[in-house]
Amino acid sequence: MENCVCHQLRTMVTIPKVSPTSVKPQLRVRASGGRRHCEFSSLNAPLEPRSLVGKFLSGVLQNRRQLFHVVTKEELKLLSDDRDSAVARMLISHHSDEALLHRRIAQVKENECTISIADVMYLLILYKFSEIRVHLVPKLSSCLYNGRLEILPSKDWDLESIHSMEVLDIVRKHVSTVTGLKSNHSVNDSWATTHIRKFWLARVYVASILYGYFLKSVSLRYNLERSLSLPDHNLHRGHRTGPSFHDVYRCSPKDVIFGNKNDIQSVWHSLIRQEEEIEDLKCYVMGFHPGSFQRCAKLRSKEAVHLVESHSHALFGNGKSGLSHHDDVIVTSFSSLRRLVLEAVAFGSFLWETEDYIDNVYKLKDHEVE
Predict the structure, then answer these.
(1) For the residues of 96-141, what is the DSSP string, one character each?
(2) What is the DSSP pairing of strand 144-145 with strand 148-149?
(3) Residue 16's pLDDT band (boundaries 50, 70, 90)?
(4) For residue 22, what are the contacts with CB-CB under 8 A and spacing of at least 6?
(5) What is the rounded CA–CA span in Å between residue 307 and residue 57?
(6) pLDDT at 147 over 50
(7) Residue of 203, 302, 204, 305 lying closest to 258 (CA atoms)
(8) What are 303-361's pLDDT values in tens digits?
(9) Residue 240 pLDDT > 50, yes or no?
């Protein structure tokens, strides 16, 4: 049945490249009056699909949303079969004259699948954002006006709605820590402006993705153990020796996103300190064995690492040059900073769910922390 649906959609949705002129118009919200180039819509996400599978599924998401998950699952199965077949041919021909050729074919297929899976991940995350009626912030280069960045509407409530109350308390403390905006801030505080380097903002954004990913992982594990009434042997309330910064950093994506360790050490120290008043979850995290902590904090797959890198470069970068350590200082409001951080935390949470969903159909490559 799924094969039939997928074949019919490929016939109906022949989209070499999705563009606003080729699909039904969607609801759009301008980030600020008078700037038509900065629009929030499902067609204006920072990262565009690079693979044929990604472009096809993007068309399905726009035109046949109700069938998106059915078709996505079928595409994942096809990708898995293609990769497995290439590997099988490589193994069979190991001692033949064609061994080198099939090894090369398997490598090319693996690279193609990595790009395709990153696209599938991204589209699944976009679907989850659409369920809470939130569009990702477009490329910041298109939203800057005379060096000023303003993101409207804020969508704070929608972005917070995905978290449980216990996790939400931690998320709000995180937002307060990295933005300097107090939880009981006034309207005037929210609209006050600050100067910030775009590269530093990018590091905060990616750190927040990782933090959202970590919170999703640890909260699910915590709730599972609590629901099973397992012994509380992991909680050591009298012995607070939480994970060190070095442990956290080793679970982070590559330096190409963050810069050097000294640049982000203060950010991660703040992320760890901010949980102090959330006793139950705090004690649970602090009682982690180092190995358990690393399993929860790191991105589990290479495909997820690739996606976070690509998304961050697309959002903050300037073309193919990526992120510059000497980029311009931008002016923005604390409200806009809060929106970016909340979006990043939600992205990390959705990434964890998406990674888990895909891995049940297409075996992802483990991300080994060096």
Answers:
(1) STTHHHHHHHHHHHHHHHHHHHHHHHHHHHHHHHHHTT-PPP--HH
(2) antiparallel
(3) very low
(4) 15
(5) 16
(6) yes
(7) 203
(8) 999 999 999 999 998 654 455 554 678 899 888 999 999 999 999 999 999 999 999 99
(9) no
- Residue 280, pLDDT score: 67
pLDDT at 21: 34
Q: Which residue has the tokens 């903050």?
A: 316
Q: Which two tokens stand for residue 285?
A: 């995290």
**Is the dihedral angle over the CA atoms 307, 309, 310, 314 positive or is it negative?**
positive
pLDDT in tens, 179-225: 887 666 666 777 788 898 888 899 899 989 998 998 898 888 777 77
Cα gap 166→95, rounded to integer Å: 58
Which pair of tokens denotes residue 243? 């994970």
Cis bond upstream, residue 253 (ω within 30) = no
Residue count (the chain):
370
Backbone angles phi, psi at 153, to 5 degrees: -75, 165
Q: Which residues touch 121 (CB under 8 Å, ≥6 apart)?
A: 303, 304, 307, 351, 354, 355, 358
> Do 134 and 151 meet the contact criterion of CB atoms below 8 Å apart?
no
Other C-beta atoms closer than 10 Å to the C-beta of 1 total: 7
Amino acid symbol at 180: G
Question: Helix, strand, or coil here: 237?
Answer: coil
